[in-house]
Write a structure and sequence with these properties.
The complex is a heterodimer. Chain A is α+β, with helices and mostly antiparallel strands. Chain A is built from nine helices and seven strands; from the N terminus they run ββαβββββαααααααα. Helices cover 32% and strands 10% of the residues of chain A. In chain A, strands 2-1-5-3-4 form a five-stranded mixed beta sheet. In chain A, strands 6-7 form a two-stranded antiparallel sheet. Helix content of chain B is 37%, strand content 15%. Chain B starts with a helix and ends in a 14-residue tail after the last strand. The chains are: A alpha+beta, B alpha/beta.
């Protein structure tokens, strides 16, 4: 098959950038979107022209390096699939396919289709971890984890950090990314000790860098790791609790830190504290 | 032949791995007492550079930082999480013995030594097995969502080459989950201001000042700035070089440059020819397919490998009746069957392909069939165990492995070779430490499945932080060389010259064309099977290709910008040197061992035939001397705890 590729070319961060159109022929249908760029680049380099810069690495959907808007969709026309696993068979012979970088204020363009997504790592660096010093871990079996909870944690942990959720969002919000990490760690007993400090710090960094979530839900079909909106519900709930908690309760004991039972001692609270032990909405 | 070999390489002195004396069973524990320590208050006076943020690099950096050392971490990725550890699918081995199936630290040790066909260092392997237990504890504490049984315990599964269930996994994304745990710890230290992290920065040379590793020269991949970074010690955790074959199971940016540059500065390179071909990779279906994507070996737990009994049988797989199928692994290796080790499975597959029994449009694959498992366990269980792998396959091929067998083929995957290191994971250059796949010491001539995440984790979290301290302790007060130190200036200048030279050739061929050609040469001559004649031919062809590269490559663009062609060209230039050394090592090692199969050396029934009298050793190559010949040194290996034996998986 043949395709016309209309691709964003921008020499560096200071360049204004423009679209350029290229023709590609002899495309076999199982070629991936990134391999289309490989083909184009071989053609360009053969002509002594500069190839299109794009991020990519594992080419099997797990590293999260690749990210390109294809006809306005992050990664391409197929939902929940990274660009490296999207195939030319999604297009019809002769189609015009537009490729541009992920667009978000927090993702400045470095060159062509390459953007700087380090703002995502700043969120993680501010709290997206469990602090355990090397050599300090107890025997792993001392902590039984319910299979359903472990599976749910795995669902959330599957995020590949590509930033498609941000690119898809009209607000360029990073709630799905942040929520996935918060939900992953909040779902596990190991993650309870730092649960509220974590969410508070991560949300603060997120808000410094990204837009606000208004529940469009555009992020969900864009997510190659199938992260669901429930992580944002959990993010909001845990954040609410963390703010409330930071504003005063001095009587938190170590036992309380394992979960949220301390909330139940409060006589009244907002609706979202009504059933603090029910974590079922964080599972799928 | 030997005259030809002598013309190509010189023989140097023996080298020793400096493992402590005494039995391997208590060696590491005993040795901990002998390791020198750095006072907590003095640690901040030492600076350590860690290159690579995969499992080994992130673990080293995070641990050293927690201990109080100044750490600078470098990655060529835009984020530490993307390091290629992320792509390991199947799992991580540990001798937890959570099942009553007879596993133990010593059994993991023995399986690994035996799996490596007795070409690894016993002492190191035992340490690997002991510390495996800590890895699972640590990773669990860091929040890795390991698969669980219904009672809440951690689940395990078995993997190729073993008969016990000791592989811990997080769906088909174990590497991703361990890598995320590791990179999160690294970022924790970055967030706390204790680690300086450099992203999109590539190491292009090692600085050796006054005989010690003292820093690195880097190129900022966005601005093109070339500059030195100096430190008291350097840790390379930069992964393996399987991409030398062009198409492999590796991520595209995985490369050999960091370790190869260190080698050019004098670090010995261990066993470069030991390359594992993964038996369950995706067959190549067209020129533009970027890689032979790995389909995790764990699939062999529940899949049965077969080909049609008759060459050229064109029927669709489901129409080929049982009696016309050859389940050749089960037939040839009844006790291990489909779980035979990788080297054996790959070679067996190649034999079927060579016999014309390959399946698929290009006849370059064999079937991996889940029909029996689906009938026995149900589709749901299969989805739970392998869902994302099977989806990946469907996506790549348009075929549904739940209803028709998968097609698989051997693909270059993991390199057991790497920079030679001693028992402290220190290379032959003092102060240069190497961990994970970049190193060479655990896996001998063949790596067991799920031992890769293990060795990277053990090196990064539980070995190098201890041994680096031992190196640094006596150097308290030592100055880091300044940027105007002659060795630093020279290293920077040489890097600049090399980059300028690549850009100035302006020939006619793109870097990738050389890479493809090199990949073809290596696959043909230094692949699943090697022969002396082919190796000589391959070396000559690689040399000619390299000369052509340096006179005729065209790198478009300039150096003061993000220039992915320039990055690739630099890496390919190094592959063109490494490729020749791989062939030379394969020619030099006049025996078959593990994944190194010299067709001249095989048993009557086609198995690898070792020559223990002459080759119970690791080869450690020094860069070419004045006469242009690389110098091969040998480390004699002894097997006291696991006596030398012929592997049998029959």
């Amino acid at each position: 098959m043949r395709l016309s590729l209309v691709i964003w070319r921008q020499a560096d961060a200071n360049d204004t950038g423009r679209f350029e159109r290229y023709e590609l022929t002899d495309i076999s249908p199982e070629v991936s979107i990134l391999e289309l760029l490989d083909m184009l680049n071989a053609q360009l380099v053969g002509e002594g022209r500069e190839p299109v810069a794009f991020d990519h690495d594992c080419r099997e959907g797990i590293c999260g390096s690749c990210g390109v808007m294809v006809d306005g969709q992050p990664h391409g026309p197929v939902d929940n699939t990274p660009a490296c696993l999207q195939r030319a068979r999604s297009f019809a012979d002769g189609d015009v396919v537009t490729m541009e970088p992920f667009r978000a204020g927090a993702f400045p363009v470095i060159r062509d289709l390459v953007v700087d997504r380090s703002a995502l790592d700043r969120i993680i660096a501010s709290g997206g971890y469990i602090s355990t010093a090397t050599n300090a871990a107890p025997e792993a079996l001392t902590m039984a984890v319910n299979k359903t909870e472990a599976d749910a944690a795995m669902n959330h942990a599957a995020c590949i950090g590509c930033g498609a959720c941000v690119a898809a969002c009209p607000n360029a919000a990073a709630q799905l990314f942040t929520g996935a990490k918060v939900a992953h760690l909040a779902q596990l007993p190991q993650g309870q000790v730092e649960r509220y400090e974590r969410v508070r710090a991560m949300v603060q960094t997120m808000e410094e860098n990204f837009g606000s979530c208004t529940n469009y839900g555009e992020c969900v079909p864009a997510c190659p790791a199938d992260i669901q909106l429930d992580v944002i519900a959990l993010l909001n709930r845990d954040y609410g609790r963390s703010v409330f908690r930071a504003s005063g309760d001095e009587e938190v004991t170590d036992g309380d830190r394992r979960g949220i039972p301390w909330l139940s001692r409060l006589r009244s609270g907002p609706w979202w504290q009504s059933d603090p032990d029910d974590r079922s909405d964080a599972t799928r | 032949m030997s005259a030809d070999l002598d013309r190509r390489r010189a023989i140097g002195d023996e080298i020793h791995g400096a493992a402590p004396t005494g039995g391997v069973h208590t060696m590491w524990d005993d040795h901990l007492l002998d390791l020198k320590l750095v006072n907590p208050a003095n640690r901040r006076r030492f600076k350590v550079i860690v290159v690579g943020t995969g499992l080994a690099g992130a673990g080293t950096a995070a641990t050293l930082s927690e201990l109080g050392y100044q750490v600078e971490a470098f990655t060529l990725h835009d984020a530490p999480r993307r390091a290629h550890s992320v792509a390991a699918q199947g799992g991580v081995n540990a001798a937890k013995a959570y099942k009553a199936d007879g596993d133990s630290v010593d059994r993991l040790f023995r399986d690994t030594v035996k799996g490596g066909d007795f070409r690894s260092r016993e002492a190191d392997v035992h340490r690997l097995s002991e510390l495996s237990v800590r890895v699972i504890d640590h990773m669990t504490a860091l929040g890795v969502p390991f698969a669980r049984e219904y009672g809440g315990q951690i689940a395990t599964r078995s993997f190729g080459g073993v008969q016990v269930s000791r592989t811990f996994y997080a769906r088909g994304q174990t590497g991703q989950q361990l890598q995320l745990a590791g990179s999160q710890q690294l970022l924790k230290e970055v967030g706390a201001g204790r680690i300086v992290l450099h992203t999109r920065v590539e190491m292009l040379d090692l600085i050796v000042a006054d005989g010690r590793a003292a820093g690195i020269v880097t190129r900022d991949m966005v601005t093109g700035e070339i500059r030195p970074h100096t430190a008291h010690a350097v840790v390379l955790a930069t992964g393996g070089y399987g991409n030398v074959y062009f198409k492999s199971t590796l991520a595209k940016s995985s490369n050999v440059t960091a370790t190869w540059r260190a080698h050019k500065r004098g670090a010995l390179f261990g066993n470069p020819c030991f390359v594992q071909f993964h038996p369950t990779s995706l067959p190549v279906s067209n020129e533009w397919q970027s890689k032979t994507t790995l389909m995790s070996e764990s699939l062999r737990n529940d899949g049965r490998v077969w080909v049609p009994k008759t060459a050229g049988d064109d029927r669709p797989p489901n129409e080929i009746p049982e009696e016309d199928r050859d389940y050749y692994l089960e037939r040839m290796y009844p006790s291990f069957g489909n779980l035979a080790p990788r080297d054996i499975s790959s070679r067996a597959a190649k034999a079927q392909l060579d016999a014309g029994k390959g399946v698929g449009p290009l006849r370059n694959g064999v079937y991996l069939d889940f029909a029996d498992a689906i009938e026995r366990l149900g589709r749901k269980t299969m989805e739970e165990r392998y869902g994302n792998l099977l989806d990946l396959y469907t996506d790549a091929t348009g075929e549904d492995p739940y209803t028709a067998p998968m097609r698989i083929a051997p693909g270059p995957h993991f390199v057991m070779g790497g920079l030679w290191t001693d028992y402290h994971q220190m290379s032959s250059i003092p102060g240069l430490f190497v961990g994970g796949e970049a190193s060479f010491n655990y896996h001998g001539a063949n790596r067991l499945g799920a031992n890769s995440l293990l060795s990277a984790s053990v090196d990064g979290w539980f070995v190098i932080p201890w041994t680096v301290a031992d190196y640094l302790a006596p150097r308290l007060g030592a100055e880091v060389p300044r940027d105007d130190h002659p060795d630093v200036v020279a290293a920077v200048r040489e890097t600049e010259e090399r980059v300028s030279r690549l850009l100035s050739i302006q020939g006619t061929r793109a870097p990738d064309e050389y890479h493809r050609e090199l990949g073809r040469l290596l696959t043909d001559h230094v692949g699943v099977e090697r022969h002396a004649d082919g190796l000589v031919e391959g070396m000559n062809a690689i040399r000619a290709l390299r000369e052509d590269f340096w006179s005729n490559v065209r790198v478009v663009g300039h150096g003061e910008q993000l220039n992915q062609e320039l990055e690739r060209a630099g890496r390919i230039a190094d592959y063109l040197e490494l490729g020749e050394l791989m062939a030379l090592d394969a020619l030099d090692r006049d025996e078959s061992a593990g994944a190194h199969f010299r067709s001249e050396h095989q048993t009557a029934d086609g198995e690898a035939l070792r020559d223990d009298d002459h080759w119970t050793s690791a080869s450690a190559w020094a860069p070419p001397g004045d006469d242009g010949r690389p110098i091969r040194r040998s480390e004699p290996l002894t097997f006291d705890a696991v006596p030398l034996a012929t592997r049998s998986y029959k």
